[in-house]
TrEMBL record:
It comes from the Bacteria. This is Cytochrome C. Residues 22-50 are annotated as: Disordered. One of its GO terms (molecular function) is oxidoreductase activity. InterPro entries: AldOxase/xan_DH_Mopterin-bd_sf, Cyt_c-like_dom, Cyt_c-like_dom_sf, Cytochrome_c-type_DH. PANTHER family: ALCOHOL DEHYDROGENASE CYTOCHROME C SUBUNIT, BLL4482 PROTEIN-RELATED. Keywords: Heme, Iron, Membrane, Metal-binding, Transmembrane, Transmembrane helix. Residues 430-533, 575-682, 707-795 form the Cytochrome c domain. The keyword Transmembrane applies. The chain crosses the membrane at residues 389-411.
């Protein structure tokens, strides 16, 4: 019964200034304030075990609200010795004389009164956080306000800049407030889904030498089984910030161990935690756990298992449980319990006001509230046999045409309203950095930047079997770019291949892969692109021949071949493997080049990553590649993807060079994940055996086997041997790929080698590789063909000779240089 947060009220900070300008903590009501508080405001009492576990602290909160539901007054009382009589907190109270026992007051209100009766300091700080954040959630939901926006409204934009920044960062990374997509993975049958938010902080005295302020925000996503009371924590996004009042804060993430520890203490249970597949490693990471990455998200995969089965045990807190709940006083993990409680309410509609949140307590609360399970119908998928029947040639192609014609006759997708301008101040630095990394992984600039043009301004000509497609302007220019695109329009284009105006995009834009990206990654990419310089540039219009110029025909293609389902991690595989596949199949869209396509231009799923074409170059297979002279190891894949060179395989050139340039700027852990996943698709190899085989093949065969190829041999010795033999080469010229281990020499077709011989490598993937001259002006087609024939015979003697090399040389000469 998850509520639609997007339908709730959102706040305008300017309106907040008009309503609360000049307000301060503990200030008296102003006579000039025309707002009228309600007579009977919200009131709730919460419980928390004391540090020693011998008693329960009673935490009573009452408030008065304005007519719009925002808070005007706040009255809080905490007591250990006796229950607080209902309504006592609504009466005037005196502030506690023990300043150390007072909880921090984070929200800006007209009147705030706090009384804590805790002479022995038996109430842990997180108890106050739990009461405050649970109450804020209750009041926000009751007033039909977004819980995150409600808190932001009660924080000053200038004095509480650090608090607001960490809240925004965590909310953005958790995709808070965005509607759940129709194809998102739903809760299992019989389970209900919810998410909760909580926030905490410590504000120091504004004096010289005082410690900086600290803040922490959490978002918890969970599933609940109302029948058994089991709780499965799906995801936790948590962040923290430190800074001086009014100054730019230092924002970062929480270590994985701290998140896990806080969850265990809040729930009194043990958990297994792993980083999720859509989380990047920290920049510059060397393959560690990535604990310091911004807003670390965890997938806590084990459901709660409680040992408290009786109704009586529900109200008893052991000293061990109390110690777990009270041990930490730091603000970073303090919001965990409130975030869980708020998520449980979101899922079930029942509010738990006292931990622990075990199955017995949850079942009892649901029974008392008379809540029954809600089983949502499972999503229906088109039968796979229809897709298999329609995917091939012959009758499948005819049926595909008929389906496309039918789709062209149906009403198209609606245009989405333009926005005035995106407010880039809303995006946190962590979100923008995440978006930058997603853009690098997706090679956005590679396809959306024309030769000599501005980055992402579009205009690059992409040659396809169906005609030339020109890339569009991705900069936030209002007239020629995406400056007036809302996030909804951007996400629709990325996931469904439909532009803001409702027209279909051609699948040369790999939305079929981008659809697998997670919502936080998608939102971060949008934020990053919108924060870049706007460039006014109108790329040439794509004009394919009839009937391909009828874009609505693409709807039929999508029906046949496009799956909009987000990537689903494989629980049987490791986090590293899932991260690698997520990058390969999602943002990296490796299959766009490395998977062969059918007659309608769709990737052939049964030949996944088994070799394709890209801009006239052969994209070699990534699965058990027969093109490679020696098998690929995971270490060789990592070297190649990270640096553009593997001694056992050669140099990245052609369309692969800019891909490696982007990967070189990603966290090392991401590149390792890609290498790990790709290596897992092929039979495992022994590193020492591969090294022995590489040594045997490196120098090629004896020159006697190339008799009759003297012209090619002389050309090789004059132009190539200085760098490409074991005895040649000059170190400061860069790397020296050996022909006997070069994949382009052992491939079935000579195209890749021809491109390199003609054009050289004038834009290496990384600076350390060095440059290679091209020979198009030094040799004619016949000489290039003789050189290629010699190289093939000497360095790939186990492969058949290439045919029609003169024609291949002519094609390479006329093809655009990459």
């Amino acid at each position: 019964m998850r509520r639609n947060i997007c339908d709730m009220t959102r706040f305008d900070d300017d309106a907040r200034h008009r309503a609360l300008d000049g307000s301060s903590r503990g200030a008296a009501l102003s006579e000039a304030d025309t707002t009228s508080p309600q007579d009977d405001g919200p009131h709730a009492t919460y419980g928390w075990p004391t540090r020693d576990g011998d008693a329960v602290a009673h935490l009573d909160v009452a408030a008065q609200t304005r007519t719009d539901g925002t808070l005007r007054t706040w009255r809080y009382r905490a007591d250990v010795d006796s229950d607080i009589a209902p309504g006592d907190a609504a009466l005037p109270v005196r502030p506690s004389q023990d300043a150390a026992a007072l909880p921090p007051q984070l929200y800006r209100l007209d009147v705030s009164a706090v009384q804590v009766s805790d002479a022995g300091h038996r109430i842990p700080p997180q108890a106050h956080t739990f009461a405050r954040e649970s109450f804020m959630d209750e009041v926000a939901v009751e007033a039909d306000h977004d819980p995150v926006g409600y808190r932001l409204y009660h924080l000053d934009p200038e004095r509480d800049a650090g608090a607001r920044e960490v809240i925004r960062m965590v909310a953005q990374r958790a995709a808070w407030g965005l509607p759940e997509r129709a194809d998102a993975i739903g809760a299992p049958t019989g389970w209900q889904r919810g998410r909760g938010f909580a926030f905490d902080g410590e504000t120091s005295a504004e004096s010289e030498g005082a410690a900086p302020d600290t803040w922490s925000a959490w978002v918890v996503d969970l599933d609940v089984n109302p029948q058994s009371g089991e709780i499965a924590i799906r995801r936790v996004v948590a962040g923290q910030a430190t800074g001086e009042p009014g100054a730019a804060p230092e924002v970062g993430g929480l270590p994985a161990w701290q998140i896990t520890d806080a969850m265990q203490r809040a729930l009194g249970m043990a958990w297994d935690a792993d980083a999720t597949h859509d989380e990047t490693g920290g920049t510059g990471s060397t393959g560690g756990t990535g604990d310091e990455q911004a807003a670390m998200a965890l997938a806590l995969r084990r459901a709660l298992i409680s040992t408290q089965n009786s109704a009586d045990a529900r109200h008893t807190v052991s000293s061990m449980d109390a110690e777990r709940l009270a041990r930490s006083a730091a603000p970073a993990p303090a919001p965990a319990a409130a975030a869980i409680a708020n998520a449980l309410f979101d899922a079930t509609g029942v509010r738990l006001r006292r931990p622990p949140f075990d199955p017995a307590s949850l079942r009892s609360a649901l029974r008392d509230a008379n809540v029954s399970p809600e089983n949502a119908p499972a999503n229906q998928r088109r039968p796979a046999r229809w897709r298999r029947w329609l995917a091939g040639g012959g009758i499948g192609g005819v049926m595909g045409g008929l389906i496309g014609l039918a789709c062209a006759m149906l009403p198209g997708a609606p245009a989405l309203a333009p926005i005035t301008a995106a407010d880039n101040t809303l995006w946190s630095s962590a979100t923008l950095e995440r978006g930058r990394q997603v853009a690098l992984a997706g090679d956005c600039a590679v396809c959306h930047t024309a030769s000599g043009g501005a980055v992402n301004a579009g205009g690059l000509a992409l040659e396809t079997p169906f005609g030339t497609v020109y890339s569009t302007n991705l900069t936030p220019d209002a007239e020629t770019g995406i400056g007036r695109w809302s996030y909804a329009a951007f996400a629709r284009a990325m996931r469904e291949g439909i532009s803001r105006d409702g027209s279909h995009l051609y699948p040369a834009f790999p939305y079929t892969a981008f659809a697998k990206m997670s919502e936080p990654d998608m939102l971060a990419l949008y934020a990053y692109l919108m924060s870049q310089p706007a460039v006014a540039n109108t790329p040439p219009k794509t004009a394919l021949p009839f009937p391909l110029n009828q874009r609505r025909l693409v709807a039929g293609w999508n029906w046949l071949y496009h799956d909009t389902t987000e990537y689903r991690p494989d629980p049987a595989q490791s986090t590293l493997w899932n991260r690698g596949r997520y990058l390969v199949d999602g943002a990296g869209h490796c299959g766009a080049c490395h998977t062969p396509r059918n007659m309608l231009g769709a990737e052939r799923e049964k030949l996944y990553l088994r070799g394709g074409e890209a801009e006239g170059w052969r994209a070699p297979p990534l699965v058990a590649s027969a093109d490679a002279p020696v098998p690929w190891t995971e270490a060789a894949l990592f070297d190649y993807l990270r640096t553009g060179f593997s001694p056992e395989h050669g140099v990245a050139a052609g369309p692969m060079a800019p891909v490696v340039s982007g990967l070189a700027a990603l966290p090392e852990t991401d590149v390792r994940a890609i290498a790990h996943y790709i290596a897992s698709l092929s039979p495992q190899t022994n590193a020492s055996q591969v090294a022995d085989l590489a040594r045997q093949r490196a120098s090629g065969v004896d020159l006697a086997t190339t008799l009759g190829m003297e012209n090619g041999r002389r050309t090789f010795e004059a132009a190539c041997a200085v760098c490409h033999t074991e005895s040649g080469g000059v170190g400061h010229f860069g790397v020296r790929p050996l022909m006997g281990l070069n994949t382009s020499v052992s491939q079935a077709k000579p195209d890749n080698l021809m491109h390199v011989l003609m054009n050289g490598i004038d834009q290496p993937a990384t600076e350390a590789l060095g440059y290679m001259p091209g020979f198009r002006d030094a040799f004619d087609d016949r000489q290039i063909a003789e050189l290629a024939s010699y190289i093939r015979a000497r360095y790939a003697p186990d492969q058949p000779a290439w045919r029609d090399l003169d024609a291949a040389a002519a094609r390479a000469r006329t093809a655009p240089a990459h």
